[in-house]
Structures are given as structure tokens and as C-alpha cells.
Design brief:
single chain, six-stranded mixed β-sheet, 16% strand, globular, disordered N terminus
Length: 425
């Protein structure tokens, strides 16, 4: 069974190479673990990133399971395929043959050398217990998401470092704050330079969703009809950043509750959506325990909901929901490659006090973030943050209201911050 090195040394993407914060995590992972799994949505730039990493180690072979010959070879004999590999090696699209993970574990146990395997996959197969258990202690996982606005602007520093500082520093606002454009465009690399801008973007996103539903999901499970998944996506897109009421959603779709839960898990496994859990200082506290659902990229939410720029500019309700999804997704991506563990959740009591986003760092310090579509912030908008501050005491660093303001303002001990601070220095 010959193993063919398919590395294309003249590979060039059709868009400019931007700095990826995930790159640093991959490089450090290769230095400290035998296996690094770079995972993220299809078309998010994983293959581009690993091909450019080949410049750091030209001896590393590159194989892709999109190659029909290699795919059949790996699927028919996973152990033999891995046994004959010359290390170090990069294997692209490994989710197409998940049996390779057990074969890789066996080889790593025989030859434990850091940096031996760099794997990429466009589904989060590490969420399955079988894979997670098999490579525990041998593999580190790095997420490669669609670009953050911070990466697109080429800004330095990160918003997450700024908000946890004892005294809130001055922020130099950089980059346009054209929020409708940013929400519609999202962060997928090909979408940034779609031509013509409107129809090209729509065609790319439509093709991407079709590929995810008809190929990536079928790589994970046997599913005869993707129509139900399409219906779920469109229903979720009708109210992005909404609370996930499984019983009501199952009723609306006329699906059994367990079937709906399985479909929602598939959407998460393929990085179309993710859920944000509810947060509480105490399990006995009377909190609403309903998670919220967000799209990984707002361009997909807009496409599925049939929303264009004109509607974003006139439909304040749709704009508000999509803006919340946009901001939470930006922070969610930043947290995935931050050196400190930062857990994200939302806060809502039965009394109706809400905080859109609660960020809890590994040192148990907490920042609460409210997201407002308007420029005007009133004391009434601070009720949820005040409630959270009272519940946390000294653990509460600050409350932040991200809105369409153009300057930093202090209000009742909380900071009003322009949304563009997410991608500013």
C-alpha cells in the first residue's frame, strides 16, 4: 500500500494570508504533544494554515483524505495506513476516516515523539467520547474558526486581555464600524473577497451549507434526508441568539424530542451552531437553566433567514438578534485561542434580569457583557449587570455594555464601550 505525498508546493489561496491566532497554538502543541488536531468549519482556512506551517518543517509530509486513492487506502486498512506513514505527517480531513484515530493512538504508544501527527478535520469529532478517550494525554485540540474581525483588521492585542485589566485602558478605535456589512459578510476567508460582493457571497454560503449538510454530516452518521436539518437551521436563523426550548422547537418541527436533540448535536459537530449554557454562582439559585443557540458565523444565519443589507438597516429586531450573535461569536472565537481558560455563559433570572454574556476566567474573575444595538444606554439597561455584580462581590471585575457608541463612558460603575473595540488596538 504505497503512501503518496500529495503536498502541492506551489499552493496559493485566492485571498491574502492574514495572521491566524490559532497558528501559535498549533506550533506550541506540536512542540509539546505527539498529536495536534486542528479542527473547525469547512472553508475556515485549516488547510491553508497547515500548508504554510510546512515551511517551518519541509520534511513533514502532507496527505489529504479528499484524495480518492488515499481515502480508500485509509478506510480499508487504517492500521496498515498509519503504520507505513513517514513521520512527521499532516493528515487533512481526517474526519472522513475516524478509525484512523485508534490506529494513530497505537503508533504513538509505540513511538511517542512530539509533533508526529498534525491532523485537520471539519467536524468536531473530539466531542465523541470514543475519540476523546482513545487519545487522552496524547493529543491537543486547536480550533480554527472563520476569521475574527480582529484578524481581518490585523490588529494587535486582544479585547479579552483588556476587559480583565484592573483599570480599563484607553482603546484606540481602528477599522470601520459598518456593522451590517460585517454581520452579512462573516469571517469565512472566501467570503471576504466574494465577487460580485452580494451574489458571490450568497453563492459561496449556499454552497458551503449544502456541502456541510450533504457531505460532512454524512461522514459522521448515516442520514437519509437532510431536509429536516435544513428546516432546523432555518428555524434557528429566524431568531439567532435565542433560548433553546427543546420541547417547543420539537413541537414546531413535528419531530420527536430525541431526534431533534440528535440533529442539534450534528449541527454543533459540523460547526454550524453552538450553545451557550446558563450561568449561576450556585446550583440552588433560582436561575433559568435554558441554553442559548448561536451560529458560528453570522453570514450563514443571514443566508438561512433570507436577510440582506436593506432588511438589516430597517428591521431593528432582526438586527438586534444578529448583532448579539455577531458579538458573542467574536468573543467565543477569541476565547478558544486565549492562553487562559475563559468560559462563556449567559445569565438570566426568573425575575427577568439578564446579562448577554458572562466571561469567567480560570482565576474565577468574571466580566459581564451586555450587547445593545442602539447608541443610547439607560440605567434600566444595567439591571442585569448590577444583579450579577451583587451576586459575585469581589469576583466581579466589571460590567461592559457594548453598543454603537463612539467613545468610552462610565455609567454606574460599568463601562460603555464601542462594539468596534472588539477589533481595535
Amino acid at each position: 500500500m504505497p503512501i503518496i505525498d500529495r503536498m502541492d508546493v506551489d499552493y496559493r489561496p485566492s485571498w491574502p494570508i492574514l495572521r491566524r491566532f490559532a497558528r501559535e497554538r498549533v506550533v506550541s502543541g506540536l512542540a509539546s504533544m505527539p498529536v495536534v488536531f486542528l479542527t473547525g468549519p469547512r472553508q475556515a482556512g485549516k488547510s491553508t494554515l497547515v500548508r504554510h506551517l510546512l515551511n517551518d518543517n519541509p520534511k513533514r509530509a502532507y496527505l489529504t483524505l479528499d484524495d480518492a486513492l488515499l481515502f480508500e487506502s485509509a478506510r480499508s486498512d487504517p492500521d496498515g495506513f498509519v503504520a507505513q506513514l513517514q513521520l512527521p505527517v499532516t493528515i487533512d480531513e481526517i474526519q472522513r476516516v475516524p478509525e484512523l484515530f485508534l490506529a494513530i493512538k497505537a503508533r504513538v504508544d509505540r513511538e511517542r515523539v512530539n509533533g508526529s501527527f498534525l491532523l485537520t478535520g471539519s467536524s468536531n469529532i473530539t466531542l465523541t467520547s470514543r475519540v476523546a478517550d482513545s487519545l487522552a494525554g496524547r493529543m491537543t485540540t486547536v480550533h480554527c474558526w472563520p476569521f475574527t474581525q480582529l484578524e481581518i483588521e490585523g490588529a494587535t492585542g486582544t479585547f479579552l486581555d483588556t476587559i480583565f485589566e484592573e483599570s480599563f485602558p484607553a482603546i484606540r478605535i481602528t477599522g470601520s464600524a459598518d456593522l451590517p456589512e460585517r454581520i452579512l459578510r462573516g469571517g469565512y476567508p472566501p467570503a471576504l473577497h466574494a465577487s460580485p460582493p452580494v451574489t458571490g457571497l450568497r453563492e459561496f454560503i449556499g454552497g458551503l451549507v449544502t456541502s456541510l449538510l450533504q457531505r460532512d454530516i454524512r461522514d459522521l452518521v448515516s442520514i437519509s434526508d437532510v431536509f429536516e436539518l435544513q428546516r432546523i437551521l432555518r428555524l434557528l436563523a429566524a431568531q439567532p441568539a435565542g433560548e433553546l426550548n427543546i420541547t417547543r422547537l420539537a413541537s414546531d418541527l413535528a419531530l420527536p424530542r430525541t431526534t431533534l436533540q440528535n440533529y442539534l448535536r450534528l449541527l454543533e459537530l459540523t460547526y454550524l451552531t453552538y450553545t451557550l449554557p446558563s450561568w449561576s454562582t450556585n446550583p440552588r439559585t433560582r436561575m433559568v437553566k435554558t441554553p442559548k443557540v448561536y451560529f458560528v458565523d453570522t453570514a450563514i444565519a443571514c443566508y438561512e433567514a433570507g436577510i440582506d443589507r436593506g432588511r438589516l438597516q430597517t428591521d431593528t429586531l432582526a438586527f438586534g438578534h444578529l448583532l448579539e450573535n455577531f458579538v458573542v461569536s467574536e468573543i467565543f472565537k477569541m476565547a478558544s485561542w486565549h492562553p487562559l481558560r475563559i468560559e462563556l455563559s449567559h445569565y438570566r433570572t426568573h425575575a427577568g434580569r439578564e446579562v448577554d454574556l458572562v466571561l469567567e476566567r480560570s482565576d474565577r474573575r468574571v466580566v459581564g457583557i451586555e450587547i445593545k444595538a442602539s447608541r443610547l444606554v439607560t440605567p434600566q439597561d444595567l439591571r442585569g449587570l448590577n444583579d450579577l455584580r451583587q451576586a459575585l462581590g469581589d469576583r466581579f471585575v466589571r460590567g461592559i455594555i457594548l453598543c454603537q457608541s463612539d467613545q468610552l463612558i462610565m455609567l454606574d460603575g460599568h463601562m460603555i464601550v464601542p462594539i468596534s473595540a472588539l477589533w481595535s488596538t
